Every structure is written in structure tokens, then in C-alpha cells.
Amino acid sequence: MEKILDIVDAIAGQKGLDTQSVHAVVKQAYINTAKRILGSHLHFDAQLDEESRTYRLFRMIEVVADDNERLSGDEDDGAIGVADALKLDSEAEIGDEIKEEISLAAFGRTAAMSLHSELERSLQKLTEDAVYDNYKSKLGKLISGVVTRIDGDENTYIEMGEVRAVLPRKSRIKDERFRVGDTVKTIVRHVTMNMKDGIKIELSRTTPKFLEELLRLEVPEIADSSITIERCARIPGKRAKVALSSQRPHIDPVGATIGTKGIRINAVSRELKDENIDVISYDETPELFIARAMSPAAALGVTIDGKRAIVQISGDQKAKAIGKDGINIRLASMLTGYEIELQENGGGANGEESDGTSLLSALFNS
User: Fold this and answer.
1) Is the pLDDT of residue 3 over 80?
2) 116 phi and psi, to 5 degrees?
3) Beta-bridge partners for 186
């Protein structure tokens, strides 16, 4: 047990642990070991001895009156009569606590093994807590790792530094396949820890957040917050819609995100297995935002009724508005939060143009 702090400090350096936290764990390990050997009802303290690079262990004993009933029993109650206390400390008074130094080494091999076990368990817990806190802070963030295994259920296990995470099949883009050794980008979706399983990290490539993080990586204006991602909706591997706003008047959020000749948005699309990405400007006016969300279809007008939006379109825009397998209208609904219904030709029952059409025209022309 000599110079134990040299060993512990080396472990702290290897594991990237906070030195003060490690010292607190070591101190508590000494106290817990003393309680286990001498009695859990007794009180102990441990103090760092810089010169010996270890901890000195003390038993804390309460000074009581000589006729106190706590002194009459056969069992050690952690108390000492004032007369005996004065022999150890000439200034001792009733109610004080005096220290009696004890050595775990005096209790033989059992004490040494107990301390070793306590330290090992406590440092392991400290390490796990540090790793857990680290990855908890990365929830929703983009990370990369190397594929180490793919199980029979097609769950992909990815090594990221000191931990191995899992990318479930359900959180993988349809039809994409990985091989052992591949480097894969994902986001951290869930981080949990319990006594039975330890730390469990679940990854995803299918959430809208993954697309957002890829855009942040690819578009400097998003990374520095000049452009804000207001809304995002995806049907993984097929299509996505992203609504953006600019915090600087001279920056076009759509143009900057798409990039020259589509270089930026195409880089993101390739990572998503060629997922088509519609990029639109966000607007706080629901009618205008919904009309833009219908892209590539051109809406003639939009009427809001609670959380329902009636979108007027011409007959030749219907196929675009719906999209293959209804994907365009579904994404527009997901992006805007409105249940969208289509109404051909933009007319009412008598073929007259609706108020929604007039409002939309005014907004576009304003």
C-alpha cells in the first residue's frame, strides 16, 4: 500500500480522470475498508500524506463523560471517557473528537486485499461515470467510429475510443450495408447506464438530427450560426426537407447550403445514400411556409383551418405535390406540423379564387 497515489495518479492520467475526483475516491476507499474490518458504526477519516504518497487513516473517537453509559458496554461504541482522552490530548473536552491513527497493514493480508478490491471497484465506477458523462454530453452530436462486428440481427457495433456503441438495424438507412473496418458517421441517440449492463450507447443514422449535423459539418455558415436550421423532416434514404433562416441579411440560406453547383448538399446526400434533400427558406407566416414546403410543386394558395391546411394547386402540379408514394405531401406535413389537404385549381365551390390564394399572392409580392 506504499506510494499508492503514484499508482493512482498514473491510472488517472491513462483514463483521463480528474485528479481531485480520484483522490476523493481513494480517501473514501480507505474509510470504507476500515468500516468493513473494524465496524460500520465507527467513524474514520483519511488524510493525504504528501511525503509518503499515501493516506493516513484515523479513527474518530468522541469524548464523553466518564460515567456515560456508552462506556459500560462490551462493544466498542466509538467513545472514550474524558479522563482517558486527556492522556492522549491535554486539551480534550467532552463533545470533542480525537483522532487515533490506525494502520490497515496491522490487520494483515485481509485488509490489504479489501483495500485493493475497494479501490479497483471505486476507480472503475469513476471511470464509467466519466465516460457516461462524456457521451451524455454528445447526445444528438455527430461522431465517427469503426465497425467491429455485425450480429445476426444486422445490428452494427461501432468502436468509439474507450467504448463500443450499437447502431440498431432500425436506425440504419434502408439497404445500406457496412463491413468490419468501415468508418461510419452517426449521431448519439441514447446513452444509458445500469449495474447489470454498464454503459450502453445507441446510435442512429435515420433521425432528422443526423441530417442537421451533417449539414452543420458541411456548411460553414450553419456551423457558425449565420444560418439556422429551423425545421427538418426525413423519410430516411428517400427524401428530406430542411427549412432554413439567415441571421445575416446578406447571406442567402438556401444558396449557401446548396453550394456552388450543389457541391455542399450533394456531399450530404451521398452520406445519406443519395437521399434527395429539398432546401427551403423558413417563414413564420404559416401560409407562405406551407407553400414553400410543397416544393417542387407550385402552390396557388393556402388556407389555414386550425392545424389543417388546404393547399390550392393547378391540375398539372398535383403529381409533384403528392410525390411518389405520397412522399412529398407527407414530408411537407411533417415539416410544417399541419395536416395538408390538396384542392385542385385553387378554386372554391363556384370556381372562385379563395382568400388563401389572395393572401399568398400578397405575401409573395410583398
Assistant:
1) no
2) -60, -45
3) 143
Q: Which residues contact 236 (CB under 8 A, 6 or more apart)?
A: 173, 174, 205, 206, 272, 275
Amino acid letter, 158: I
Q: What is the pLDDT of residue 167?
A: 97
- Name the pTM for this structure: 0.76
Query: Over the stretch 143-201, which tens digit does the pLDDT of each residue have?
Result: 999 999 999 999 999 998 878 999 999 999 988 999 999 999 999 999 999 888 789 99
User: What amino acid is encoded at 69 in this protein?
Assistant: E
As a three-state string, the secondary structure of the chain is CCCHHHHHHHHHHHHCCCHHHHHHHHHHHHHHHHHHHHCCCCEEEEEEECCCCEEEEEEEEEEECCCCHHHCCCCCCCEEEHHHHHHHCCCCCCCCEEEEEECHHHHHHHHHHHHHHHHHHHHHHHHHHHHHHHHHCCECCEEEEEEEEECCCCCEEEEECCEEEEECHHHCCCCCCCCCCCEEEEEEEEEEEECCCEEEEEEECCCHHHHHHHHHHHCHHHHCCCEEEEEEEEECCCEEEEEEEECCCCCCHHHHHHCHHHHHHHHHHHHCCCCEEEEEECCCCHHHHHHHHCCCCCCCEEEEECCEEEEEECHHHHHHHHCHHHHHHHHHHHHHCCEEEEEECCECCCCCECHHHHHHHHHHHC
Q: Dihedral sign, CA of 102, 105, 106, 107? A: positive
Backbone angles phi, psi at 12, to 5 degrees: -60, -40
Provide the grid cell at 111: 485488509
Residues 289, 290, 294, 299, CA torsion sign: negative
* Range 295-307 average pLDDT: 94
Distance CA 326, CA 28 (A): 62
Distance CA 330, CA 326 (A): 6
More confident residue, 38 or 294: 294
- Which residues are paired to 146 by β-bridges? 159, 183
Residue with cell 434533400: 277
